[in-house]
Amino acid sequence: MAALEVLRSIVVVIHLVGFAVMFGAWAVEAAARRFQATRLMDFGVLISGVAGLALAAPWGVDGELNYVKIGIKLVVLIVIGGLIGASTGRAKKGRPLPSWVFWLIGALILFNAAIAVIW
Ligand code: HEM
């Protein structure tokens, strides 16, 4: 494997760590029945987002990148970030958002993972 391909694989791993942090933090809140977003989810969005943008550039890869798929993932991640921000902000003000927002966040995270792998 060429050096650039190895580097790209490392960035994919970082991308997956971001996903793991985001979904792991979400799963912890679900198991604790708190149903609100946390700062750790923000870190997950940041890590997977920065790594995802780096991977969106065509380096260390042979074939064409699927920019429709990448664009949808970017839009979905921005929505996830917005919902997390709204949830943590409102909780801080003592007026937490309804739990369906929390479930929507989890569903959107899994949606992005699903299209990443299946599409
Ligand atoms: C919740 C958010 C996200 C999740 C759960 C997620 C999940 C994944 C997973 C599981 C993979 C590995 C599967 C594969 O390589 O086929 C992957 C790869 C990739 N992701 Fe994401 N992703 C997210 C957001 C993003 C964003 C926002 C971008 C770009 C702006 C992005 C760009 C990419 C690219 C380009 C690859 C392909 C890497 C390669 O094959 O070289 N992802 N993503």
Topology:
Layout: H1 3-31, H2 39-56, H3 67-92, H4 99-118
Helix pairs in contact: 1-2, 1-4, 2-3, 3-4
The structure holds protoporphyrin IX containing FE.
SS summary, helix count: 4
Question: How is the main sheet built?
Answer: none
Distance between the termini: 25 Å
pLDDT < 50 stretches: none
Strand content: under 5%
The H/E string reads: HHHH
| Average predicted confidence as pLDDT | 97
Radius of gyration: 16 Å
* Ligand catalogue: protoporphyrin IX containing FE
Overall helicity: over 70%
Q: How many DSSP-defined strands? A: 0
Shape label: elongated
* Strand-pairing-aware structural class: mainly alpha
Descriptive labels:
4 helices, binds protoporphyrin IX containing FE, single chain, 119 residues
3D architecture notes:
This protein is mostly helical and 119 residues long. Helices cover 78% and strands 0% of the residues. Helix 1 (3-31) packs antiparallel against helix 2 (39-56), helix 1 (3-31) runs antiparallel to helix 4 and helix 3 (67-92) runs antiparallel to helix 4. It starts with a helix and ends with a helix. The model has no long low-confidence stretch (mean pLDDT 97). Bound molecules: protoporphyrin IX containing FE. Protoporphyrin IX containing FE binds next to helix 1, helix 2, helix 3 and helix 4.
Structure, briefly:
The chain has 119 residues and is mainly alpha-helical. Helices cover 78% and strands 0% of the residues.
